Amino acid sequence: MEIVTRFLIAILIILSFSLFVAVASNNPGEDYTKKKEVLSYIDLVSKKNNLDHADLMQLFKGVHTQHRVLKLMQSPAEAKPWADYRKIFITERRIKKGVEFWKNNLEIFEEVENAYGVPKEILLAIIGVETSYGSNIGSFPVFDTLATLGFGYEKRSKFFLSELTQLLLLAKNENLKIHQLKGSYAGAMGLGQFMPSSYRHYAIDFNKDGRRDLWRSYPDIIASVANYFKQHGWEEGQPIALQIEVNDQDLSFQPFLKKGMKPTIDLSHFKSISSISNIPETNEEKVSFYEFKIGSEKQYWIGFNNFYVITRYNHSPLYAMAVLQLSREIGDRIKDSQPHVE
């Protein structure tokens, strides 16, 4: 009797799971065309961008609203304190994987660095921070994610609706199957996590195969990140950021911390403040100023133009500092791994 009972329970579990799979796979999603704002959007983008109105209507009839995305937008990693943020990205595992990724793609990195002037360490660090070199490119359906955010996240609705339009154009121009695209909870795609607008404007077909593939083509991926930096003003051979000594008992430096990420402070101003020392000699005239807290300690950094360029990839000083520090760790390991010439 006990055996029969167990058998029946097993059958019920299997049937329940099968039913769940069937329902999940055939889930039609939510009909967004019942929303007035969606109909207005479809009318506008179809006319303005020569997109088929009927195709768009069909597409928006089956949106799977990404409720988890809306929750994640409320607590981004960039909201963490620097000490906690740093622990996520500056890890031994990520450093080693960066060196391994470089060794497996030596020629590509050399070609890209020569073509765009962006150091391989920075390119490695970007891909490392964004997706851990491709091991975590995101599992959210990009179309559903951007539709959810565009019509459900009022705080940044304008931005995400613009990216939704860019995604529609990208899928059309690059012949991509829009429902198969997976990405981050913000709609970023590929190993470099390009938003659709960045994909359209900065992606490069570096291997000349007629496609700009930011998921599988390492030449395209690495060159596209480098092109993004070059187009945003990367200066080859120039400094990125330097740590300086500050006597924070004297608060005369505080106003500099409120100047924002763009370098607008005359470097000469720092030299005139007695509480600040270790100012470097450089031909860079404008800098930005940052404070990073690790426990009870504080670090002070000046950022040059190239540091600002990193913040164009992700508008956060924490992000730029994570990229910089990871790039230095990887760079040191790469140097150590190369044979010394007497």
Annotation keywords:
342 residues, alpha+beta, Helicase, Ruva Protein, domain 3, 5-stranded antiparallel sheet, two-stranded antiparallel sheet, 15 helices, 7 strands, globular, disordered N terminus
Short description:
With 342 residues, this protein is α+β, with helices and mostly antiparallel strands.
CATH superfamily of the domain at 33-74 and 137-202: Bacterial muramidase
β-strand percent reads: 5-15%
| SSE sequence, one letter per element | HHHHHHHHEHHEHHEEHEEEHH
**What does the average pLDDT come to?**
89
Shape: globular
Helix content: 40-55%
* Major sheet strand order: 4-6-7-3-5
β-strand number: 7
What's the number of helices? 15
Structural class: alpha+beta
What CATH architecture label of the domain at 33-74 and 137-202 applies? Answer: Orthogonal Bundle
- CATH class descriptor name of the domain at 33-74 and 137-202: Mainly Alpha
How large is the radius of gyration? Answer: 24 Å
Question: Might you state the CATH topology name of the domain at 33-74 and 137-202?
Answer: Helicase, Ruva Protein, domain 3
